[in-house]
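Hi U.,

Before I forget, here's the chain from the pilot set. I'm dumping it here mostly so it's searchable later in email.
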Amino acid sequence: MTDPRFRIGRLFAELSRRKVVRVAVTYGLVGFAVIEAADIIVSAIHLPPQFVAFVIVAIFLGFPIAIVFAWSYDIVPDSSVEEANSGNPPDDGPHSKQSGWSPVRVISISAIMVIAVVTWYEFRPDTPNSSHDPHPQYIDSVAVLPLDNLTGDESYDYIGIGITEEIITHLAKIPPLKVISRHSVQAAAAQRLTTPQIANALGVRHVIEGSLQIDGGQILVALQHINAETDAHLWAENLGGPLSDKIQVQQAIADFVTTKIVDMIPGLTMPTMSTHLDLGPGQKAYLEGKRWMGQRTTEGINNAVHYFEASLELDPEYAPAYADLASTYALALSYRYDIDVDGYTIAARAMSMADKAIALDPNLAAGYAARGLIGIQIGHSPISIAADFDRAEQLAPNSASNPSWRSLAQAQLGNTEEAFAEARRAVDLDPLAPARQIALANVAFQLERYNEAISAARIATAQEPRLIRGHAIEARSQILNGDPESCSNLLLSAYRVLRATCLDASGRSADAEKIIAGVLNNIDAERISEPGYTEVITFEELATYYAFIGDAENAQQWLMRSFAVSPAGIEFRVLESALFNRVRNDHDFNAAVSAIRADLYAMVRRRSENL
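Structure:
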């Protein structure tokens, strides 16, 4: 029997003769150098961090391929010369495949093969990171903090807010730059965190901050740009201009900051900006409306409507105010808030305002986004809705509202992964805004990803406890996720009928019927809705309750009543969910749904044209 030590010795001798060891050592040295170089390149030109991981994986996968090549092709550089000098004839044995290939050639071929395979895997068409993804990785990220008002006079707050808003609007038009929305920036700044802490909370690397003063009729703004990762101040500048020309000053400062950011970060280009008429005294009301709109509470939506309308009274030709008022009306429908106007008039006004905004400024992203949002509420063609959101995306690729609302349109079209990616992107751009979590929860619910819907809904409720919409989404998700006991313990307030559905799902049908009986008595006594909410919530949830227990006749009755008071009578994602499975095949119920959907959009459109 051959001595094992002899066999091991022969193996090592053969490995040495075939230059396998040399290939392994060379490959390791070259691979280490490539990884180091990749790390430097990522920092220098702001490639995504995943690039380094990609390189490391490719190098590790290439190592065994290089070894196999070395063994199989018996790499002996200049072997023909060595054989001629030695005087030995070439060995024609089975292990002699001397090819004259050098270790460098083997390493190169191995690397090419691995990179080709890993690239195909990473970017193949059916993966979320594929090259056809319309939303590539961000090159970099920035947050623009509200300016500190050092004047001692709160009446000048709106000037600093206007400057911040204008800078964010400019930067949001640069597709590869992640720009945090104003609502989240204000929420973070209000917590009195350090600049690095704010950057970490918002997920950004660059922070623009500064202060505002008024001196002798001059606006004085001190700005600085901070790299939050290193806490290094990249630049600081004092800017300003006449208080009488505050709109022009805002635009000039926004142009300056945008230019500095574009010049500093490779891969960015200056956006094409559209200008709006000077709001004059209406600017303060408009910015106040934007602030209230971000809250999404009953108080917030009502105040937003008031301030946007006040702004338009002062400047009837200001397109952004029309767009934001249209969006606020659409949100009132979606959240079922009472703003002292009936649902069909609200919808018609929203459509009319969105059309007006687009007519005044065809390059205003907010106008198209508003029209898309109201289209979702009133059953417009999903293709037309998607076209509006696509246009808004082209005009302002970093506006958080657009992907948040666009995700719902994508879900309607059946583009599951695109819908979820859009909702997550909105959260990324506006991480501290509960509205983005609500949209994510809605999409997750529609896609039957109930655990994710519950998680997003809980985050929204934690960010804004007055948003009971989060509880409603959580409750519906728990019913369909097999946990009705948890949903029956939620504080559902205006969604009290939904609690009856939870109780029935958990086997407590008698308790559910008591709630329903009480609600029906209140309806008879015309005590229908909770303060701040419309009766459509009650009608919608009664339709859902009866559908869930399989009572198609009553489900149809309350379906008709919900759409009688609002074109957004029952949320489409709820109507198409498993909550309605027991009446899904009922002929009369389906006929009622089809009849409503057939005329809904046309009816609202006719009303809007008469406003």
